[in-house]
Amino acid sequence: MEEISHLQSAQSKAIKSGDDEELAEISLRPLDLSDIDDFMVWASDEKVARFCTWDPYTSKEEGMNFIKNVVIPHPWFRAICLNNRPIGSISVLAFSGTNRCRGELGYALGSKYWGKGIATQAVKLVVGSIFREWPHLERLEALVVVENIGSQRVLEKAGFTREGVLRKYVVLKGRTRDIVMFSLLSTDQVSISTTSLHL
Ligand SMILES: CC(C)(COP(=O)(O)OP(=O)(O)OC[C@H]1O[C@@H](n2cnc3c(N)ncnc32)[C@H](O)[C@@H]1OP(=O)(O)O)[C@@H](O)C(=O)NCCC(=O)NCCS
Prior knowledge:
Layout: H1 2-12, E1 15-17, E2 22-24, E3 26-29, H2 36-43, H3 46-49, H4 60-71, E4 77-82, E5 85-94, E6 102-109, H5 118-133, E7 139-145, H6 149-157, E8 161-172, E9 175-185
Parallel strand pairs: 6-7
Antiparallel strand pairs: 1-2, 3-4, 4-5, 5-6, 7-9, 8-9
Helix pairs in contact: 1-5, 2-4
The protein binds coenzyme A.
Coenzyme A binds next to strand 6, helix 5 and helix 6.
GO molecular function: acyltransferase activity, transferring groups other than amino-acyl groups
InterPro entries: Acyl_CoA_acyltransferase (IPR016181), GNAT_dom (IPR000182)
Organism: Rubroshorea leprosula
């Protein structure tokens, strides 16, 4: 509980950024059609899509269809925002039936913002709320391509356990890849300190 209140204060805390000392804030909120221009910045970036199952979006229409058909009906999809402007996304996919105890975390951030601690902060915000929002959830998992070192580091920093490598688990960009499985259980004791952001 103490950890959760830490997170809530992290979400609302203003953070000094960069040389110009602007006040910057990382928060999560729903993404909608009016965010299409911001969405296209990361969704059309090849660097962002490299380790993801999707290919870079090539038109605004494709982006609008994704927001309409996938994002809006999605059970848990949020924009990662810097000063309320979307710079990436984070989602939890819900499983049902005998798999209803678990959810799968996914995220992506515009490449301009990499290396500043933002994705770690966003994952911590999800961890701080998802088990309360979905009381049936016992396990949050994340599947990362072995070459995606940055994403593995994000999960480690957010308190996830690296469980092992699933060999030849998924076909990605025409090649079958090994995947690292990470998880966080609702019962795990995570010491969540607020990530230092270097904005
Ligand atoms: C993965 C991703 C979300 C990371 O976002 P980010 O905001 O840069 O992450 P953070 O800054 O919070 O942390 C990244 C960590 O990885 C480290 N890192 C990044 N690339 C690395 C590399 N090639 N080798 C070693 N460490 C690396 C960084 O140094 C940092 O660790 P540190 O704080 O200990 O120095 C972002 O790069 C991204 O959106 N990539 C494309 C989409 C994607 O891969 N999504 C995940 C699919 S599973």
